[in-house]
Amino acid sequence: MNGLGPAARPVSLVFQDNNLFAHLDLFTNVGLGIDPALRLKPADRQAVSQALARVGLGGYEKRLPATLSGGERQRAAFARALVRRKSVMLLDEPFAALDPGLRAAMADLLMALHRETGHTIVIVSHDRQEVERLASDVLFLESGHIVLSAPKEEFFATTGIASLAEFLGHPHGE
Q1: Shortest CA distance to 163 belongs to which of 133, 138, 143, 135?
Q2: Cα dihedral sign, 86-87-92-93
Q3: What whole-number distance in Å separates Cα of residue 108 and Cα of residue 87?
Q4: Cα 59 from Cα 27, distance rounded (Å)
Q5: What is the pLDDT of residues 7-65, one digit of tens each?
Q6: CA–CA distance from 98 to each of 58, 102, 104, 133, 136 (Å)?
Q7: At a CB cut-off of 8 Å and minimum separation 6, what does 105 contact?
Q8: Cα dist. 164→26, 51, 60, 172 in Å?
Q9: Whole-angstrom distance, CA of residue 91 vs CA of residue 172
Protein backbone atom coordinates (compact mmCIF):
# COMPACT_ATOMS: atom_id res chain seq x y z
CA MET A 1 0.00 0.00 0.00
CA ASN A 2 3.00 2.29 0.31
CA GLY A 3 2.76 3.06 -3.40
CA LEU A 4 -0.84 4.23 -3.10
CA GLY A 5 -1.89 7.68 -2.00
CA PRO A 6 -4.15 7.79 1.07
CA ALA A 7 -7.31 8.33 -1.01
CA ALA A 8 -6.53 5.29 -3.17
CA ARG A 9 -6.02 2.89 -0.26
CA PRO A 10 -8.91 0.50 0.47
CA VAL A 11 -9.05 1.58 4.11
CA SER A 12 -11.44 3.77 6.10
CA LEU A 13 -10.27 5.01 9.49
CA VAL A 14 -12.31 5.99 12.51
CA PHE A 15 -10.03 7.75 14.95
CA GLN A 16 -10.58 7.79 18.69
CA ASP A 17 -10.84 11.59 18.62
CA ASN A 18 -13.36 11.45 15.71
CA ASN A 19 -11.49 13.94 13.47
CA LEU A 20 -14.51 16.07 12.55
CA PHE A 21 -14.07 19.55 11.12
CA ALA A 22 -15.52 21.97 13.68
CA HIS A 23 -16.60 24.57 11.10
CA LEU A 24 -18.53 22.08 8.92
CA ASP A 25 -21.97 20.65 9.63
CA LEU A 26 -22.45 16.91 10.02
CA PHE A 27 -23.75 16.39 6.50
CA THR A 28 -20.60 17.99 5.08
CA ASN A 29 -18.31 16.14 7.50
CA VAL A 30 -19.81 12.81 6.44
CA GLY A 31 -19.94 13.80 2.76
CA LEU A 32 -16.17 14.37 2.82
CA GLY A 33 -15.87 10.60 3.16
CA ILE A 34 -17.33 10.21 -0.33
CA ASP A 35 -15.60 13.10 -2.07
CA PRO A 36 -13.18 15.55 -0.44
CA ALA A 37 -14.24 18.15 -3.01
CA LEU A 38 -17.88 17.57 -2.01
CA ARG A 39 -19.05 16.94 -5.57
CA LEU A 40 -21.89 14.75 -4.36
CA LYS A 41 -24.41 13.14 -6.66
CA PRO A 42 -28.00 12.67 -5.49
CA ALA A 43 -27.22 9.04 -4.57
CA ASP A 44 -24.24 10.23 -2.51
CA ARG A 45 -26.42 12.74 -0.67
CA GLN A 46 -28.89 9.97 0.08
CA ALA A 47 -26.05 7.73 1.32
CA VAL A 48 -24.92 10.47 3.73
CA SER A 49 -28.43 10.88 5.15
CA GLN A 50 -28.86 7.11 5.42
CA ALA A 51 -25.52 6.71 7.20
CA LEU A 52 -26.42 9.43 9.70
CA ALA A 53 -29.80 7.80 10.30
CA ARG A 54 -28.17 4.40 10.70
CA VAL A 55 -25.95 5.68 13.52
CA GLY A 56 -28.87 7.44 15.23
CA LEU A 57 -28.16 10.96 13.95
CA GLY A 58 -30.96 11.38 11.42
CA GLY A 59 -32.09 15.01 11.37
CA TYR A 60 -28.70 16.23 12.65
CA GLU A 61 -27.35 17.04 9.18
CA LYS A 62 -27.04 20.81 9.79
CA ARG A 63 -25.60 20.59 13.31
CA LEU A 64 -22.00 21.55 14.00
CA PRO A 65 -19.75 19.13 15.91
CA ALA A 66 -19.46 21.52 18.89
CA THR A 67 -23.21 21.17 19.51
CA LEU A 68 -22.94 17.39 19.90
CA SER A 69 -21.94 15.13 22.76
CA GLY A 70 -18.71 13.15 22.48
CA GLY A 71 -20.68 10.03 21.65
CA GLU A 72 -22.62 11.81 18.91
CA ARG A 73 -19.39 13.11 17.39
CA GLN A 74 -17.97 9.58 17.43
CA ARG A 75 -21.10 8.25 15.71
CA ALA A 76 -20.76 10.98 13.03
CA ALA A 77 -17.18 9.83 12.40
CA PHE A 78 -18.48 6.27 12.15
CA ALA A 79 -21.08 7.43 9.58
CA ARG A 80 -18.30 9.03 7.51
CA ALA A 81 -16.44 5.71 7.44
CA LEU A 82 -19.64 3.91 6.41
CA VAL A 83 -20.16 6.03 3.30
CA ARG A 84 -16.60 5.43 2.09
CA ARG A 85 -17.41 1.79 1.25
CA LYS A 86 -13.80 0.63 1.54
CA SER A 87 -12.94 -3.06 1.92
CA VAL A 88 -11.11 -2.48 5.23
CA MET A 89 -12.38 -0.42 8.15
CA LEU A 90 -9.90 0.37 10.92
CA LEU A 91 -11.42 1.69 14.14
CA ASP A 92 -9.35 3.02 17.04
CA GLU A 93 -11.33 2.59 20.28
CA PRO A 94 -14.51 3.50 18.37
CA PHE A 95 -16.92 3.02 21.27
CA ALA A 96 -14.85 4.52 24.10
CA ALA A 97 -16.95 7.72 24.35
CA LEU A 98 -20.29 5.91 24.21
CA ASP A 99 -22.53 4.88 27.08
CA PRO A 100 -23.10 1.11 27.48
CA GLY A 101 -26.44 1.02 25.63
CA LEU A 102 -25.18 3.01 22.67
CA ARG A 103 -21.94 1.04 22.69
CA ALA A 104 -23.94 -2.18 22.28
CA ALA A 105 -26.08 -0.64 19.52
CA MET A 106 -23.04 0.57 17.57
CA ALA A 107 -21.35 -2.83 18.02
CA ASP A 108 -24.49 -4.48 16.63
CA LEU A 109 -24.45 -2.07 13.68
CA LEU A 110 -20.80 -2.85 13.03
CA MET A 111 -21.50 -6.59 13.04
CA ALA A 112 -24.49 -6.12 10.71
CA LEU A 113 -22.31 -4.14 8.30
CA HIS A 114 -19.69 -6.86 8.40
CA ARG A 115 -22.32 -9.51 7.57
CA GLU A 116 -23.75 -7.35 4.75
CA THR A 117 -20.46 -6.43 3.10
CA GLY A 118 -17.99 -9.13 4.14
CA HIS A 119 -15.42 -6.35 4.53
CA THR A 120 -12.54 -6.65 6.96
CA ILE A 121 -13.00 -4.74 10.20
CA VAL A 122 -10.05 -4.11 12.48
CA ILE A 123 -10.76 -2.69 15.93
CA VAL A 124 -8.14 -1.44 18.36
CA SER A 125 -9.54 -2.04 21.84
CA HIS A 126 -8.45 -2.24 25.44
CA ASP A 127 -11.84 -3.66 26.45
CA ARG A 128 -12.01 -7.42 27.05
CA GLN A 129 -15.81 -7.48 26.65
CA GLU A 130 -15.54 -5.75 23.29
CA VAL A 131 -13.04 -8.38 22.14
CA GLU A 132 -15.35 -11.16 23.36
CA ARG A 133 -18.37 -9.68 21.63
CA LEU A 134 -16.90 -8.58 18.31
CA ALA A 135 -13.75 -10.50 17.45
CA SER A 136 -13.33 -13.62 15.40
CA ASP A 137 -9.54 -13.33 15.39
CA VAL A 138 -7.33 -11.41 17.82
CA LEU A 139 -3.88 -9.85 17.57
CA PHE A 140 -2.49 -9.10 21.03
CA LEU A 141 0.22 -6.44 20.98
CA GLU A 142 2.79 -5.56 23.57
CA SER A 143 5.26 -2.69 23.07
CA GLY A 144 4.29 -2.50 19.40
CA HIS A 145 4.94 -6.19 18.69
CA ILE A 146 2.45 -8.98 18.07
CA VAL A 147 2.67 -11.34 21.03
CA LEU A 148 -0.22 -13.56 19.96
CA SER A 149 -2.28 -13.96 16.80
CA ALA A 150 -5.10 -16.44 17.28
CA PRO A 151 -8.78 -17.20 16.79
CA LYS A 152 -10.84 -15.70 19.62
CA GLU A 153 -11.35 -19.02 21.41
CA GLU A 154 -7.61 -19.76 21.44
CA PHE A 155 -6.87 -16.19 22.53
CA PHE A 156 -9.06 -16.52 25.62
CA ALA A 157 -7.64 -19.98 26.42
CA THR A 158 -3.97 -18.94 26.13
CA THR A 159 -1.87 -19.05 29.28
CA GLY A 160 1.76 -18.23 29.95
CA ILE A 161 1.80 -14.65 28.64
CA ALA A 162 1.83 -12.32 31.65
CA SER A 163 0.54 -9.23 29.82
CA LEU A 164 -2.29 -11.24 28.25
CA ALA A 165 -3.21 -12.71 31.64
CA GLU A 166 -3.35 -9.17 33.04
CA PHE A 167 -5.58 -8.03 30.15
CA LEU A 168 -7.88 -11.00 30.68
CA GLY A 169 -7.95 -10.48 34.44
CA HIS A 170 -6.33 -13.82 35.26
CA PRO A 171 -4.40 -13.86 38.52
CA HIS A 172 -0.66 -14.55 38.46
CA GLY A 173 -0.44 -15.00 34.68
CA GLU A 174 -2.69 -18.08 34.64
Answers
A1: 143
A2: positive
A3: 19
A4: 10
A5: 788 998 888 777 899 999 999 999 999 988 899 999 999 999 999 998 889 999 999 99
A6: 18, 6, 9, 16, 23
A7: 56
A8: 39, 36, 41, 11
A9: 31
**Tens-place pLDDT, residues 118-145:** 889 999 998 888 899 899 999 999 999 9
- Tally of helices (H runs) and strands (E runs) in the chain: 7, 5
Q: pTM for the complete prediction?
A: 0.79
Q: What is the DSSP letter of 94?
A: T
Tell how strand 11-14 and strand 88-92 pair up.
Answer: parallel
> Range with the lowest mean pLDDT among 35-44, 85-94, 103-112, 117-126?
103-112
Rounded to whole angstroms, the Cα distance separating 84 from 82 reads 5
